[in-house]
């Protein structure tokens, strides 16, 4: 169980995350939605301590994560793998080396400095790539892959960390719909087959509805919705996405497109607010 207790992060006068309280049981797939600037990325960064809280607690299995330092903090970051919108691979390195860097967290310091990997670690990395359908690219330079392929490698790298929790910050925002589906299917399968907690920031409401057990809506740093997808009403979506959502709704009623097509198109547009 991951618990946030009155967790806040301020940047000067600006409160990016305002007193967040959440309990996330192990094995849940959670989608965080909200407008640009709502505080979604900051919340994820707080979870793996890429940024430090101004106030409050993050508790996992009884440990206050906000207090960790040194080796314990490194171990937490290893338990809590992060996937980014821009993949963050090292382009000039081959795919397998990129995946193996996911193991660096778990190695003794001398081995991580020399970056020597055992046969077992290499086999593990290939297995992770194979799971994402990417084993055949193991020896290719990462920069030669498409965006969708790079994101699959980034997920394999996260798996190589053997994390307890997978955090994904807009994992499909740079991808076309087909690759977005492949990446979201992969995250859902890791969640369901391995029982890992997956928490992802998502721009598209539909994606959150289709893939997540639970949706958290943020607005101006606050959690304004927390529930199952079926509880997320149009009114609530409007509160989360603000005025723009209303404009999209109004446009939906005046469009000449057939209803279902119009709604789908508008939802897609609203998703990118
Ligand atoms: N390092 C920082 N320094 C100052 N302000 C920051 C910093 N990081 C985030 N903020 C501010 O905190 C607020 C929340 O930002 P955050 O990136 O968490 O939002 P978001 O919901 O993830 O937005 P987006 O969907 O555009 O990524 C914004 O007002 C942003 O300007």
Automatic annotation (TrEMBL):
PROSITE patterns listed in its UniProt record: ABC_TRANSPORTER_1, ABC_TRANSPORTER_2
GO molecular function: ABC-type phosphonate transporter activity; ATP binding; ATP hydrolysis activity
Alphabetical keyword list: ATP-binding, Cell membrane, Membrane, Nucleotide-binding, Translocase, Transport
UniProt cross-references to InterPro entries, sorted A to Z: AAA+_ATPase, ABC_transporter-like_ATP-bd, ABC_transporter-like_CS, ABC_transpr_PhnC, MetN_ABC_transporter-like, P-loop_NTPase
Organism of provenance: Gymnodinialimonas phycosphaerae
Record protein name field: Phosphonate ABC transporter ATP-binding protein
Record's keyword annotation contains Transport: yes
Domain ABC transporter: 2-245
A Pfam entry, by short name: ABC_tran
Record-level GO cellular component terms: membrane
Gene3D superfamilies per record: P-loop containing nucleotide triphosphate hydrolases (3.40.50.300)
Alphabetical list of NCBIfam families matching this protein: ABC_phnC
């Amino acid at each position: 169980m991951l618990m946030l207790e009155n967790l806040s992060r301020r940047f000067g006068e600006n409160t990016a995350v305002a007193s967040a309280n959440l309990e996330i049981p192990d094995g849940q797939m959670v989608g965080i939605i909200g407008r640009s600037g709502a505080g979604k990325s900051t919340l994820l960064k707080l979870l793996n301590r890429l940024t430090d809280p101004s106030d409050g607690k993050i508790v996992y299995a009884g440990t206050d994560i906000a207090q960790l330092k040194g080796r314990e903090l490194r171990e937490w970051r290893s338990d809590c793998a992060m996937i980014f919108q821009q993949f963050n691979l090292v382009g000039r390195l081959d795919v397998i080396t990129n995946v193996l860097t996911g193991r660096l967290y778990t190695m003794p310091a001398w081995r991580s400095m020399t970056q020597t990997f055992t046969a077992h670690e290499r086999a593990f990395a290939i297995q992770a790539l194979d799971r994402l359908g990417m084993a055949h690219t193991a020896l290719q330079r990462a920069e030669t892959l498409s965006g969708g392929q790079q994101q699959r490698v980034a997920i394999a790298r996260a798996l190589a960390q053997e994390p307890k929790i997978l955090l994904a910050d807009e994992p499909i925002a740079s991808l076309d719909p087909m690759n977005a589906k492949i990446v979201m299917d992969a995250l859902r399968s890791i969640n369901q087959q391995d029982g890992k907690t997956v928490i992802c920031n998502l721009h598209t409401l539909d994606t959150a509805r289709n893939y997540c057990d639970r949706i958290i809506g943020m607005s101006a740093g606050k959690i304004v919705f927390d529930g199952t997808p079926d509880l997320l009403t149009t009114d609530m979506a409007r509160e989360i996405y603000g005025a723009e959502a209303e404009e999209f709704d109004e446009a939906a009623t005046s469009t000449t497109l057939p209803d279902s097509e119009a709604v789908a198109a508008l939802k897609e547009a609203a998703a990118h607010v």
